[in-house]
Design brief:
Layout (H helix, E strand, L loop, with lengths): L1 E4 L6 E4 L5 H13 L3 E5 L5 H12 L3 E5 L2 E5 L13 E2 L4 H11 L6 E5 L10 H9 L3 E5 L3 E7 L7 E3 L5 H12 L4 E5 L7 H8 L4 E4 L2 E5 L8 E3 L4 H13 L4 E8 L6 H8 L3 E3 L16 E7 L7 E2 L11 H10 L3 E4 L12 H11 L3 E5 L2 E5 L7 E4 L4 H13 L4 E4 L11 H7 L2
Parallel strand pairs: 2-15, 3-14, 6-7, 10-11, 18-19, 22-23
Antiparallel strand pairs: 1-23, 3-5, 4-5, 7-9, 8-9, 11-13, 12-13, 15-17, 16-17, 19-21, 20-21
Helix pairs in contact: 1-2, 1-3, 3-5, 4-5, 7-11
The structure holds shikimate-3-phosphate.
């Protein structure tokens, strides 16, 4: 299906972005691991997070609606039910990489995970390695791809040095750590999103950070009463970028999560001279917070300057880097992103799809091995762009259309349902 997005005259008003996808996946998985039940306020209703609810139900958790909240009845840390059929993770990479951390602790039971065509090209060797070191068996297609089978065991504690800064790998190891026989430490090369650590701390787990090392002990059981999911900063980034780029715009995004490990994009935008006002969380020290801070973000269109994003900043803005490329097209000078090879393993190869997509709209942009370089020309002509079935590419193309001279025809706009099903309706309300 092709969707035409016409240039906008100016976006004005306010909106509440959908709730956080990362946090919702974790809330459902952690809820399923508990003894008792967890009330989740603000669970995201989207394709990816529905896959997570279906998966935990297949494993024996109960999911009920109670007004606006979702109540997840846990099946217990070591007592997940082995289903007869494979667990379908759909398009959800976070589900695919986090759930095995729990499954690895199911001694004597095996679980097969599979998903859509995009999932089948996303590597799982990165989580298989630490889980094997802890004692589980993991058998993957061609040694590294889904479908793959996790056979649970009595896990031993390890010290795992992550080869890449990935919150998904870190979270997988931390979830497995809960079922292990001692304290497990995972070391990250650079800080990545810390939602799992915060949720475990909120559940009373002894989880500590010392610089780049995070340690969590094995526990008998997990108990947690309530989780509140704030607005998703990664989803909010799309209307926010549109507000910065479409002349005459001013948009307020209500209730956005501003955990420091998720605000890299806003900091990059501010460095580019973009006008975004909001109460962002300061960089935390070693103490692990139990809450997720929330603010309103107020964005106004204005001129932008090119910037350089280095490897350390990449995990803090990983899902918003396609938008950095788009902002770079409109900025004065060059915008460069380095150390972002991870983009190649997302819902699409986001170095290739972003560069090809924006170039097709008239951008001066080059791919590098680990990122891209854009030369700003002050605008974008428009044209046709494919989402390649990737939700963030679909929304990128739509924002490009709003800010372009001639509009953009988006192939596969429907992919946005993975994280932001009402994206086009929200944008229409701002016109
Ligand atoms: C996520 C972590 C990131 C991000 C993904 C969600 C998470 O992946 O790209 O959309 O919820 O932990 P990596 O940590 O693997 O880079």
């Amino acid at each position: 299906m092709r969707t035409r997005i016409d240039p906008a005259d100016g976006l004005r008003g306010e909106l509440r972005p959908p709730t956080d996808k990362s946090l919702a996946h974790r809330a459902a998985i952690l809820g399923a691991m508990t003894t008792g039940s967890v009330r989740v306020r603000g669970y995201l209703e989207a394709a990816d997070t529905n896959s997570t609810l279906a998966a935990v139900q297949l494993l024996g958790a109960r999911v009920e609606r109670d007004g606006d909240a979702l109540v997840i009845g846990g099946v217990g840390l070591r007592t997940a039910v082995a289903p007869d059929a494979p667990i379908d993770v759909g398009n959800a990479g976070t589900l695919m990489r986090l759930l095995p951390g729990w499954l690895a602790a199911q001694d004597g039971r095996s679980f097969t995970l599979d998903g859509d065509a995009s999932i089948r090209r996303r590597p799982v060797d990165r989580i298989a390695e630490p889980l094997r070191l802890m004692g589980a068996e993991v058998e993957a297609t061609d040694g590294r791809l889904p479908p793959f089978t996790v056979s649970g065991a009595r896990l031993r504690a390890i010290h795992y040095e992550m080869p890449v800064a990935s919150a998904q790998i870190k979270s997988c190891v931390l979830l497995a750590a809960l079922g292990a026989d001692g304290a497990t430490t995972v070391s990250e090369p650079a800080p990545s999103r810390d939602h799992t650590e915060r949720m475990l701390a909120a559940a009373g787990v002894d989880v500590r950070r010392a610089g780049r090392h995070i340690t969590a002990g094995g526990v008998e059981e997990l108990r947690l009463e309530e989780l509140v999911v704030p607005g998703d900063p990664s989803s909010a980034a799309f209307p926010l970028a549109a507000a910065l780029l479409v002349p005459g715009s001013r948009v307020v995004l209500r209730g956005v999560g501003v955990n420091w490990t998720r605000c890299g994009f806003v900091r990059i935008v501010q460095r580019m001279g973009g006008i975004v006002i909001g109460d962002l969380e300061e960089q935390p020290g070693d103490e692990i917070a139990t809450a997720e801070p929330v603010t309103d973000l107020d964005a106004t269109a204005g001129p932008l300057l090119g910037t350089v994003v280095e490897a350390d900043e990449v995990p803090l803005a990983i899902d918003e880097l396609p938008l950095v490329a788009l902002l770079g097209c409109f900025a004065e000078g060059e915008t460069v992103v380095r150390g972002a090879e991870e983009l190649r393993y997302k819902e699409s190869d986001r170095i290739a799809t972003v560069v090809d997509g924006l170039r097709g709209l008239g951008a001066t942009i080059e791919a590098t091995e680990d990122g891209f370089a854009v030369t700003g020309t002050g605008g974008l002509r428009g044209g046709r762009m494919s989402s390649h079935g990737d939700h963030r590419l679909a929304m990128l193309a739509a924002v490009a259309g709003l800010a372009s001279q001639e509009g953009v025809e988006v192939d596969g706009m429907g992919a946005a349902q993975v994280s932001y099903p009402r994206f086009l309706d929200d944008v229409a309300r701002l016109m």
